[in-house]
Amino acid sequence: MTKTKTLATSLLSLSAAAILALVGTTSANAAPAKDTDSNGAAVSRHVASDNGAADYWTPERMKSAKSGDVLASKALQRSGLLNLGKAPVAEAPGAVTSIEGQQAAADKNINLKVNQSETPVKHIGKIFFTLGGSNYVCSGNSVTAANKSTVSTAGHCVNEGPGAYATNLVFVPAYLNGSAPYGKWTAKALYSPTQWASNGNMQYDTAFAVVNTLNGKRLADVVGSSGVQFNAARGLSYKSFGYPAAAPFNGESLKSCSGTATNDPYNPQFLTQGIPCNMTGGSSGGPWFIGNSSSGYQNSVNSYGYGSNSSTMYGPYWGSVIQSTYTAAAAS
């Protein structure tokens, strides 16, 4: 296994005719640059501009940002990697088309016991961004890095997979009810595995944002950071965190899930693992920590689940490819 020696997780809803993702929309922008790290692995890099992003994200815009339902579904459809097989279908095909459409079924059927409410954690926060003229929200975490300015999240929170990169992206650590107690940290560069940015391969649904300094300080110096681990054993126990915004949640406070990871039985080609969890859209990109607290090593992110009433959250296995993406971002 590989570790960084410092300690400090949107459900994807699948049905035969509709695949609902944690975030997403469609747009177009310049093709991302492709770097190659010291191990020869390709990494997609996109240079971002804050362009007044911090001022753009008022409390009102943060509260109204949507957990979208397009990006990851389109990526899966384009990639041709999805196998519906015997995956559970929570509703009739195509029945859930909006957050409003999910409300009644979600309120009726979701077992709220598979998540816990949490007080804010300094290094965990919300990620806000714009795609196709609409505002969206994910979750993220400050991770240890030489630049002390690196945030982990899901790949589909920064890139359509394949397609446009997000703009107007900010990280708001310890968000609570519209407040930004440690400020809004604007992105200056976005990194994802080329397997995600070029093919939308769910196996690699992880990305890292490098943020600008704020008031002359670096992110980790203000909120701390989590150690990261790669190529770990499978089947470990995890605690994941996120800000679910789709019904029946409102995205205004931090939630967590805990459990032992098991392989995805419906799409084993993704090599993902799942833990008991019903967090919905907006929790995408929230960190998975090995163990039972937010002080462990981060080892995955919230990626997807089956059905809007899913009780399992799946996250990508952090192997050498995702490690290469992290290494490129952390050293920038």
UniProtKB/TrEMBL annotation:
Keywords attached to this entry: Signal
The keyword Signal is annotated on this UniProt entry: yes
Task: Please verify whether the record's keywords include Aminoacyl-tRNA synthetase.
Answer: no
Q: Where is the signal peptide?
A: 1-30
**Name this polypeptide is given:** V8-like Glu-specific endopeptidase
Q: Which organism is it from?
A: Paenarthrobacter ureafaciens
